[in-house]
Design a protein that fits this description.
Mean pLDDT: 91
Number of strands: 17
Strand content: 15-25%
Low-confidence stretches: 1-31, 36-47
Strand order of the largest sheet: 10-9-11-12-13-16-17
Helix content: 40-55%
Distance between the termini: 29 Å
Structural class: alpha/beta
Shape: globular
Radius of gyration: 22 Å
């Protein structure tokens, strides 16, 4: 989703591209910073490391997504030359428009000296690079649209990017830093449910609203009045999948594959098992994908002997490859259901024919009814289709932007979001929240079918 066309009059001298390319390869910079290798989960995070994991435009977390001009833009931003930084970020975007980091930084450069309103977004960094990009696309699109419409009562929206590497301890340090940064009025984040749970008390104590576009674990419901989400909880997804299994497939016995190391995975497994039991069905077996000694072929045979009629994949991102092996070992013998982490282009690529007919519960789909307007705008901006993570990140940013209108303070944002009258315009319609902080919205079931929208011969298609 990139373009090779170049527009504008600015043309850096050729020697700059040579120098910048060398700097990009080495992961260092004379001015703006580059983080090719983001902090790993094993590194002890200190104050300086946390500072280096946060950026308004001076640090490039995804330098390879842009052009050498992008590095020069970051250096200009670091030097306080925001007009030049904006022009250079824009030039990089003209050459590679599908770069949400550059779009956010361009908007930040424009807003910096104009009394902006500031929020932050926390991404999983190198632990899920594609997931990070998907979140940033949603945040960038919302920021772009808000600012293009004149901002919030004339004040432009500024976004600070933070990389928590999807690690609990790192995220806690970042949350503490954001709470202590008084100009931050809201946060879009975090990614994994376990990370959002780990930071909830910090946001609660700091009275700073965080809206997760990704975390679905039921433990987050009522966790804190300052922690909300624009994605339905696992309670909603599990019941939609259960209804499909019992009412559409008319099958009652399932085997569940999950990851015991993931709060999200355990949450979805538990909700699915409860929903089936309440409607007269049964989970006849549960298998832990994090168990390296688990034989997937033997587990499937065992489950079938116990009467399993359906496979439920409650896998998370870390266990997705093992989930694919389950699909391949099954080879279309039993119907397969899955949670939202199974929704990935990689699923189509790896499972192909063996994944045909799989049904997955997702918060949003680009072809679902009500998504046409957002789909059109996002395609124009990014040059291709976006997925549910972009849509829910867009919604989280729009919710914060709307909540900033009446009273642009931390407490004002919280009060506005919790008002029973609060609504905001989202990717698929109205955004509103339940008193628990959960999104007041259903999920969308999609099925893997043969098609040409992807490059793999199979597509995710909404089930009406």
């Amino acid at each position: 989703m990139t373009s090779d066309s170049t527009k504008g009059k600015f043309s850096p001298p050729p020697i700059f591209y040579i120098i910048a390319a060398l700097l990009l390869i080495g992961g260092v910079s004379l001015g703006g910073k580059i983080l090719n290798s983001l902090p790993s989960n094993s590194i002890k995070i200190n104050t300086d490391a946390v500072k280096d994991s946060m950026s308004q435009g001076e640090t490039l977390f995804f330098p390879k997504d842009g052009t050498p001009t992008k590095l020069q833009a970051a250096e200009a931003f670091t030097s306080g030359n925001y007009a030049s930084a904006q022009a250079l970020f824009d030039l990089s975007l003209q050459q590679k428009p599908n770069d949400p980091e550059a779009l956010i930084y361009s908007n930040n450069a424009k807003a910096f000296s104009r009394n902006p309103l500031k929020i932050a977004v926390s991404i999983p960094g190198s632990t899920d690079i594609n997931g990070s990009r998907e979140i940033l696309r949603g945040v960038a699109q919302a920021q772009q649209e808000i600012n293009a419409a004149g901002g919030i009562k004339g004040r432009l929206l500024m976004v600070e990017i933070a990389n928590d590497n999807n690690d609990n301890k790192t995220a806690q340090k970042i949350a503490e830093s954001l709470v202590n940064e008084s100009s931050i009025l809201g946060v879009v984040g975090h990614y994994a449910s376990s990370v959002t749970l780990a930071t909830a008390d910090i946001y609660n104590q700091g009275k700073l609203v965080a809206i997760s576009p990704i975390s679905t674990a039921v433990q987050l419901s009522n966790k804190s009045p300052y922690v909300l989400r624009t994605v339905p909880s696992d309670y909603v997804s599990a019941r939609a999948l259960t209804d499909y299994m019992l009412q559409t497939l008319k099958l009652k016995k399932a085997v569940v594959y999950f990851n015991s190391q993931s709060e999200y995975s355990k949450s979805l497994k538990g909700e699915f098992s409860t929903a089936i039991a309440l409607q007269g069905g049964q989970v006849v077996g549960e298998y832990d994908l994090s168990d390296s000694s688990l034989s997937l072929n033997k587990s499937l045979e065992e489950a079938k002997q116990l009467g399993a009629e359906v496979i439920m994949l409650a896998s998370n991102t870390d266990s997705l490859d093992r989930a694919f092996q389950v699909v391949q070992a099954n080879n279309n013998r039993l119907p397969v259901l899955g949670g939202d982490d199974v929704y990935s282009p990689k699923t189509l690529d790896v499972t192909r024919e063996q994944g045909r007919g799989m049904v997955i519960a997702v918060p949003w789909h680009i072809l679902a009814a009500g998504s046409e307007n957002f789909a059109k705008r996002s395609r124009k901006l990014w040059g291709g289709d976006v997925n549910w993570r972009t849509a829910t990140a867009y919604d989280a940013t729009q919710a914060l932007g709307t909540a900033l209108q009446p009273n642009p303070t931390r407490e004002g944002v919280s009060v506005t979001l919790h008002s029973p009258l609060f609504t905001a315009s989202g990717a698929s319609g109205t955004i509103s929240f339940l008193p628990s902080g959960d999104r007041n919205a259903p999920v969308q079931l999609v099925k893997v079918v043969e098609g040409s929208r992807s490059t793999y011969g199979y597509d995710f298609t909404p089930i009406p």
